[in-house]
Amino acid sequence: MFRKDLTSKELEIRNFMLMLCMTCFATFLACYQNVVRSYNSTMLALSYEYGFTSRSLLGTIYHVINKILPVNMIDYDMALLFAQIVTGLFFLFLIYFCYLCVKNCKEDYIKPCEYIILFFMLFTIATFSAGYNFFRVDLFMIWVSLIAALLIIFEKAEWLVVPLSAIGVMFHQGYVFMYFNIILILLIYKFFDAKDDKRRWKYGILFGLSFLLGSALFLWFEFFSRSNGASIYEFIKEEARSLSLNGAYHTTLLQHEVLGIDLSHTEKGFRVINYVQFPLFTILLTPYIVVGYDFFKSLIVQGKNWWEKLKYIFVAIGSLTMLPDFILKIDYGRWILTLIIYYAVMILALVMMGDRVVENQLYYTYERLKKKPWIMIFIIYPIFFIPLCDVDISTFMQFFADQMDEWFLHVY
Known about the structure:
Blueprint: H1 8-31, H2 38-42, H3 57-68, H4 76-103, H5 110-129, H6 138-154, H7 161-171, H8 175-178, H9 180-193, H10 197-223, H11 229-243, H12 251-257, H13 268-284, H14 286-302, H15 306-317, H16 323-328, H17 332-352, H18 356-370, H19 375-380, H20 395-409
C-alpha cells in the first residue's frame, strides 16, 4: 500500500502525520459532547438581511444555505449537523496546514516543528471539540488567518489578504485583537525582510490596506451597526430559540449585539474569576514562558543590524494586540488559546519561509531541551489544561483556583 522507496524525510512526515491524525481523533473523542452551546447556536440567528450588523457573517452564510437546501435549517438538530460538518472540515484544514509545515521544513528542523505542531493541535482540537467552544465563531477567525498566512508564506495571490482581513472582522469584530495579528505581523516581517524596494512597497501597501479596512469595519460594527435593533429583536429572538437546544437561546448575546446594551456591569463576578485564575495559570506555565522568552531574545540578539532585529521584535511582541481583551474582556480561556496559536503559527511560518536564524535557534532550543531529565513532563504537562474554556481558562484551572481561593484568597 505504501511506497518502499521513501526518503528519510518522506518517511518521517508520513509517520508523523499518521500519529498526528490518530492523536487528533483521540482528542476529539475525549472532548466531544455532541452539543452546541446556546451562545454559539444563537449566533446563527444574526444575519445581514437585517442590515450590515456585528457578528452576522456566519448567520448570513447559514441563512443562504437554508434558502438553497430543501430542508428547514432553522432548527437545533440541523444547526448541530451543520456545526459537526464545519468543525470536521476545519480540523481537516488544520491537519493539512500541519502537513504543509513539515513538508516545507528542512529535514534537520522537522523534529522541533513536530513538537510545536503537537502543542498547537492539542489545544486547538480539544478546545473546539468540547461543548463550551464547539462551533464557536473563533474557529472561522483562525481559519481566515491561516489561509492568509499560507498565501503570504508561499507568495500566492497575496492581495487576497485584504478581503480576508475584512472577512475575519465580519465574523467577529474581536478579530482585530485576536487573530488579525498573524496577518499583520507576517506582512511586517515580509516588509523588513524584503531585498528590494518593489517588494517592500508591496508589503507596505498590503499592510496598510489590511489594517485600514479591518480597523474601519471594527469601528463600524462596534459603534454604528446597531441602529435598528429594537425593530428586529423579537424576530431574531424567535429564530434563536428555534436554533438552540430546548429553546434556551443566549439572551445577553442578543441584547448586546442586536439592541446594543452595554452589559459590562454584569461581568464583575467573572472578572474576579479571571483575576484569580490568570496569575495562577501564568505561574503554572512559567517553564514555557521562560523557554519562549529565551527563544525570542536570542532571535533579536542574532539580528545583524537594527533593521533585521526589528522584524524579530515585531514577531516577539505581536501578541500585544491581545492586551485590550485581557484588560477589558473576561473570556480568558479564549485569550490563552489565541496566544498559543499566534506563537505556534508564527514560528512555523518563519520556518516554512526558510528563515535561517529562526531555524537554527529552534534547533538549538530543541537540542538543549531534549537533554533535560524532565523533558517528558514538559511535553505531557499541557494535557492538564485542555480543553480551554471561556471565562474559566480550563476545568483544571477552575478546580485549582477554587481550592486556592478556599484555602488562602477568599475573594470569590
